[in-house]
Write a structure and sequence with these properties.
By secondary structure, the chain is an alpha/beta fold. The protein has 2 domains: 168 residues, NAD(P)-binding Rossmann-like Domain (Rossmann fold), CATH 3.40.50.720; 209 residues, 2-Layer Sandwich (Dihydrodipicolinate Reductase, domain 2). It is built from 12 helices and 18 strands. The protein has a 10-stranded mixed β-sheet with strand order 14-15-13-12-11-7-10-9-8-18, with helices on one face. Strand 2, helix 4 and strand 3 form a beta-alpha-beta unit. Helix 1 packs parallel to helix 4, helix 6 packs parallel to helix 7 and helix 7 packs antiparallel against helix 12. The longest helix has 28 residues. The chain starts with 10 loop residues before the first helix and ends in an 8-residue tail after the last strand. The structure holds nicotinamide-adenine-dinucleotide. The site of nicotinamide-adenine-dinucleotide has 25 residues, from helix 3. The site of nicotinamide-adenine-dinucleotide (NAD) has 25 residues, from helix 3.
Length: 437
């Protein structure tokens, strides 16, 4: 395991890996330019930031997702990323560059946690490290934002909830859909406006056509960079992809599953990995609702989506950004159909395109977690919104996170138990205690 290993690296290896990192950096630069165009860059010394108390952040794990978050984090007024930690030198140097001149670099996250000036920590490391790092950070008096899935095991996730409560420090989990105006809007349509009538069935899927494998020139980094493919670090597709979507099912139904069964296999990518490249899972939710989930790595035709099907209509959320409503022939008129854009659906049906700024009563705006979104929210992606909420609502104002430890825990239990059901070839029945800490 690379867990506690202090990785030594020669200059030649560093340069070789840097060449690989340069290609990734070029992509990141192009992406950053797009982000710059969307969002004005603010720094801790800008006019708006001077009016806010500064928030000092320590960042642990600056790989792919860490960099995605860091790019957005440094633009939030008043944020100072004062410390960056990673064990892989190319990622560490990239993270420090992105964080700015005030950031100190660390190889050992425990040294970063010793700093008294750090208010909060963001953790974007491989799954098997989430629990220990989060618990150590909470016990060091920091609020924590930890990427999903919350933890590698149910026991670890449970302990994270308990330590957050004991320390009084908040724990936010990175299921960013909770901060997406499109998701909040769709949930409101389903739950409050009841546009699909009685929910009878849910389908969700995440289909890709790639190996999930990263190119690694220096074999000593194989497991560090390809941790997703090895079960000692990873819980595979259910943790990496499904957890976001099963979390949405929990959220939209305001429930947790009653039972789960499934199948998995290493059916296509027979390349030394020991996590499944193909999972098919059925959950049972209250009121007879069945949730059919699939994730594969050898065909991308369907992309990824969540589809809620009721006796009056279907809500479809695709690629984490587009929403559609397909009404059944028996559905009553909603009153705003004529104003909505239309999209073609299956079998000649016409869908209404959900637009958070148009397909709802005028002037109500988007409300996420009871908080009305400020002007301009519709131009921001969910990563920006979840980070803004963490910095402003959680760290500055001490509010409970919208996607808090309990929400993350329920999603983690649901996906980790699906893996267990697949592994054991059984149907697992959940008890309410399994979802309660
Ligand atoms: N919310 C989302 O949409 C989303 C998307 C992608 C990934 N993620 C999550 O983010 C996490 C990271 O995924 P990734 O794709 O960025 O992985 P990654 O491998 O690209 O990055 C992980 C980083 O952690 C570093 N690391 C490993 N051990 C460490 C240690 N002991 N101390 C400090 N750093 C260490 C690695 O060197 C690497 O740079 C995972 O939990 C993943 O599920 C979330």
């Amino acid at each position: 395991m690379f867990k506690d290993k202090h990785i030594q690296i020669s200059r030649r290896e560093f340069l070789r890996d840097s060449a690989w990192a340069a290609a990734a950096a070029a992509f990141a630069t192009a992406f950053q330019e797009r982000l710059d165009a969307q969002q004005p860059k603010t720094s801790s010394t800008s006019q708006s930031a001077r009016n806010l108390p500064p928030v000092n952040i320590g960042f642990i794990g600056t790989g792919t997702q860490g960099q995605t978050l860091l790019q957005r984090l440094v633009r939030i007024p008043g944020v100072r990323v004062v410390a960056v930690c990673d064990v892989y030198p190319p990622h560490l140097s990239r993270g420090v560059n992105m964080a700015g001149a005030q950031a100190m670099s660390y190889r050992d996250y425990r040294r970063l946690l010793e700093r008294k000036d750090i208010d909060a920590v963001i953790i974007a490391t491989p799954l098997h490290l989430h629990a220990q790092m989060t618990i150590d950070a909470l016990q060091a008096g920091k609020h924590v934002f930890c990427e999903k899935t919350m933890a590698y095991s149910v026991e670890e996730a449970r302990r994270m909830v308990q330590v957050s409560r004991q320390t009084g420090k908040h724990l936010q989990i990175g299921h960013q859909r909770h901060y997406s105006p499109m998701y909040a809007h769709t949930r409101e349509m389903m739950v409050e406006q009841e546009v699909i009538g009685k929910l009878v069935h849910v389908r969700a899927w995440w289909h890709r056509n790639n190996s999930w494998r990263r190119p690694v020139r220096d074999k000593q980094y194989e497991e560090l960079l390809n941790w997703r493919l090895y079960s000692k670090y990873s819980q595979g597709l259910m943790a990496e992809l499904a957890s976001h979507q099963i979390d949405v099912v929990n959220w939209f139904t305001d429930a947790t599953p009653i039972s789960v069964m499934g199948m998995g296999g290493i059916d296509y990518w027979k390349d030394g990995r020991d996590v499944w490249d193909n999972v098919e899972v059925i959950y049972e939710y209250p009121n007879g609702v069945k949730v059919v989930y699939t994730s594969i790595l050898a065909n991308q035709y369907d992309g990824y989506a969540e589809q809620f099907m009721g006796d009056k209509g279907t809500l479809l959320l695709t690629n984490e950004k587009d929403g559609f409503l397909f009404l059944e022939p028996t559905a009553e008129e909603l009153g705003w159909e004529e104003h909505a854009k239309k999209a073609a659906g299956k079998g000649g049906t016409t869908g209404l395109v959900l637009d958070v700024t148009a397909t709802k009563k005028k002037g109500t705006g988007a409300v996420i977690g009871g908080r009305k979104m400020e002007a301009g929210y519709e131009t921001k992606d969910a990563y920006v919104l979840e980070l803004e909420s963490f910095v402003n609502d959680v760290v500055r104002n001490g509010q409970k996170p919208v996607c808090d430890a309990e929400v993350g825990y329920k999603a983690a239990v649901a996906v980790l138990m699906a893996n267990k059901a697949i592994e054991e070839g059984t149907k697992i029945t959940f008890t309410p205690e399994m979802f309660t800490v």
